[in-house]
Specification:
443 residues; 33% helix; eight-stranded parallel sheet; two-stranded antiparallel sheet; alpha/beta; single chain
């Protein structure tokens, strides 16, 4: 330049070493421990938003929205159980433990699910009296930890879910830090108060699918073959895991994608282990179809389900029902902006708070602090959850009718197209405006 100065280029932030990455390096170097948080994956991965429905026009005949009925009910566990689980809607509440959640939150989940005509699930740590009393249909989770497990509670359940893995941490065990181990939580888990608790990453009494078959038979004997047995896996190898679960005798297979949440685990697990929910549905359905048991063995999909469109898309791809966890907590009041000042004092904001493991949740949901827990009214929370489930169901029905179906389970892949190559490849539905998806070869 004429004045002799050298032009300066604009500083460019690295796409690899972003502000967030740099901050984590500094945190790790300062503390020497890995980061733990709650919630699910925050990175952008292919999801249901990458699919669109093809509404009916001339080639298909739509149904009138408010005058023609659209069925939403579903039976889970029809394969072997004497008493399958009958749900009015295909949206269930996922397992979240008492310990991770307050007793008021567990009660609210039971109340809301019952009002909506669906089931809720115990989670790690056993069955609480409030949960059983306010849940019309309660699924008992059988986890590697065996915390709070006893045959009497198993017999009180309406179904059993054997948890092999979770979407936020497939291959890893659960965590419940000492600050959330109250007297009651410690008593239920038969472990010391105030001491960090870790669940094992695998069940102590089996090492493979043959042992799983024996365990399923044992649980059927305990319950007189009356109630369904689910097997839940984190989404990693859905084709093989579904195949082995079916051959071991499962009535229902539950697959949890990486967008599924957790109360606490390593951040590196949440963001870097597992498959997106969208990627695990087709392989699981393929396994069921090849075994000749699709719809006989029901498939439940979870991990990042947020609205009726997500529900409808999962069902269109071959699921029988979905399960929600994080969304249910938000419906109860988790991360509510009315507690914004409290969140700020914790160094977060309402919509970004994920330190659920610390037990300081201002909403009173992911805590054992008696004063904070009182902030959640379980009756009001249950009403809010019922409203949310109702809206999700109405949204899914609206889409089904628009596609010409009088039953949500009649939705099919032909009702869908994909907006991206990745979504088309994962869901095996055509890229929008074409009849092709990656991997499809003309013969």
């Amino acid at each position: 330049m004429k004045d002799g100065t050298i032009p300066q280029t604009k500083p460019i932030e690295s796409a690899t070493f972003t502000k967030e990455v740099n901050a984590e390096i500094r945190r790790a170097s300062a503390t020497g421990i890995y980061d733990i948080r709650g919630g699910g994956a925050k990175r952008r991965v292919p999801h249901f938003d990458d699919l669109l429905f093809l509404g009916a026009s001339i080639s298909r005949y739509p149904l009138e929205g408010y005058r023609e009925f659209c069925e939403t009910s579903v039976l889970l566990g029809t394969r072997f159980a004497e008493n399958p689980v009958a749900l009015e809607i295909p949206i269930t509440i996922a397992g979240m433990s008492f310990g991770a959640l307050s007793s008021n939150a567990k009660e609210a989940l039971g109340r809301g699910a019952s009002l909506a005509g669906t089931s809720t699930t115990t989670g790690d740590g056993g069955m609480t009296a409030e949960e059983r009393a306010h849940s019309e249909i309660l699924v008992y989770q059988y986890l590697p930890s065996r915390y709070g497990m006893n045959p009497d509670d198993i017999r009180k359940a309406d179904a059993i879910e054997i948890v092999i893995g979770q979407g936020a941490k497939p291959g890893g065990g659960g965590m419940l830090l000492g600050q959330k181990i109250s007297d009651r939580v410690a008593e239920m888990r038969t472990l010391p108060k105030g001491i960090d608790q870790r669940s094992a990453c695998r069940h102590p009494d089996w090492t493979g699918p043959d042992d799983l078959e024996i365990k399923i038979l044992e649980l059927r004997e305990i319950t007189g073959w009356k109630i369904p047995i689910y097997v839940k896996v984190g989404a990693t190898r859905p084709y093989y895991d579904t195949t082995l679960a079916v051959k071991a005798g499962a009535d229902v297979v539950v697959i949890d994608g990486m967008q599924g949440g957790t109360a606490a685990t390593q951040d590196v697990f949440i963001e870097h282990v597992g498959l997106p929910t969208l990627a695990c549905i087709h392989p699981a359905v393929q396994a069921l179809q090849e075994l000749g048991v699709h719809r006989e063995v029901q498939l439940v999909i979870s991990g990042g389900i947020r609205n009726g469109a997500d529900v409808a898309k999962a069902i269109a791809l071959g699921a029988d029902a979905v399960s929600i966890g994080t969304a249910a907590l938000i419906a109860l009041g988790e991360n509510d902006p009315r507690w914004e000042e409290d969140y700020k004092r914790l160094g977060a904001t309402a919509d970004s708070y994920d330190d659920w493991h610390e037990g300081k949740d201002p909403a009173g949901i992911t805590t054992q602090d008696p004063e904070l827990s009182e902030r959640l009214n379980p009756v009001e929370g249950g009403r809010r959850l019922r409203n949310y489930l109702k809206v999700m169901t109405l949204e899914a029905q609206t889409i089904a009718r628009a596609c010409g179906h009088n039953n949500l389970r009649n939705l099919e892949p032909e009702d869908l197209c994909a907006l991206t190559l990745e979504a088309a490849a994962m869901a095996r539905v055509p890229l929008a405006g074409t009849d092709w998806y990656p991997g499809k070869f003309e013969i």
